[in-house]
């Protein structure tokens, strides 16, 4: 289902906050992944999928995420795959969407610290694609000032462990401008752009310029979950990480 997001000043502030979190690499919760104890390879999955569901989908990876995970797993020839659903409300309250950026960043860093040989696939659908995109970002809107004492993006050493980024129905800059003129564009970070796949169904008004609301809900069955899985498998098998 296509969901209309009502813009408010609070929305803009919290989208900016979500981007800032992605850039500075803040990790929520007790303890930092950098201090986690590394596990043996036998305890670690070959692949970790970190996926953020779309607006109003029930907790988990959502229908599109599930279709993608199933397509990916079936193509990996018995490799072990763990799936992490990004923990955030996925509601119309975008101030809470920042929780997803925090949680996704936290999980990615934790996997790198504990299972350095595990290959990470980061993804999301709709609002979840925005969350995943902001998680990779290394830029801020002009004039936006980071909090005192916090500098720099997430460590560049994290990026090689993320072998693919798959985004379904990521909100376009035009859509963001329509719902909130002050929202920053979702810019994929330079260390992730070459390994990112952005899928937008024909007619989708969220990621493209279409008018077909049903198109935004079509990713689970329109072949794009398979396309994304093929892309991720290629990245996984070719990675030397």
TrEMBL record:
GO cellular component, as recorded: extracellular region
Entry's Gene Ontology molecular function annotations: carboxylic ester hydrolase activity
Enzyme class: hydrolase
Top-level taxon in the UniProt lineage: Bacteria
Gene3D superfamilies given in the database record: alpha/beta hydrolase
EC number annotated for this UniProt entry: 3.1.1.-
Keywords assigned by UniProt, alphabetized: Disulfide bond, Hydrolase, Secreted, Serine esterase, Signal
InterPro entries in the record: AB_hydrolase_fold, Cutinase/axe, CUTINASE_1, TAT_signal
UniProt xrefs under Pfam families: Cutinase
Subcellular localization: Secreted
Family classification: Belongs to the cutinase family.
Role, per record: Catalyzes the hydrolysis of complex carboxylic polyesters found in the cell wall of plants. Degrades cutin, a macromolecule that forms the structure of the plant cuticle.
Name of the protein in its database record: Cutinase
Organism of origin: Mycobacterium simiae
């Amino acid at each position: 289902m296509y969901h209309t997001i009502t813009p408010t000043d609070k929305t803009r502030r919290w989208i900016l906050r979500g981007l800032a979190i992605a850039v500075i690499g803040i990790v929520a919760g007790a303890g930092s992944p950098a201090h986690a104890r590394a596990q043996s390879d036998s305890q670690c999955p070959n692949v970790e999928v970190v996926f953020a569901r779309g607006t109003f989908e029930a907790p988990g990876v959502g229908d599109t995420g599930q279709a993608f995970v199933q397509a990916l797993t079936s193509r990996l020839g018995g490799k072990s795959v763990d799936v992490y659903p990004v923990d955030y409300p996925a509601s119309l309250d975008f101030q809470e969407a920042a929780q997803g950026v925090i949680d996704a960043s936290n999980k990615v860093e934790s996997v790198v610290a504990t299972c350095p040989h595990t290959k990470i696939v980061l993804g999301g659908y709709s609002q979840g694609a925005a969350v995943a995109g902001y998680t990779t970002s290394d830029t801020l809107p002009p004039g936006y000032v980071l909090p005192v004492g916090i500098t720099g993006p997430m460590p560049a050493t994290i990026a090689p462990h993320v072998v693919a980024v798959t985004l379904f129905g990521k909100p376009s800059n035009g859509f963001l401008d329509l719902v909130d003129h002050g929202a920053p564009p979702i810019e994929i970070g330079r260390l992730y752009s070459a390994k990112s796949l952005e899928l937008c169904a024909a007619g989708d008004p969220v990621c493209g310029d279409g008018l077909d609301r049903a198109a935004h809900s079509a990713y689970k069955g329109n072949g794009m979950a398979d396309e994304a899985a093929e892309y991720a498998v290629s990245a996984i098998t070719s990675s030397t990480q």
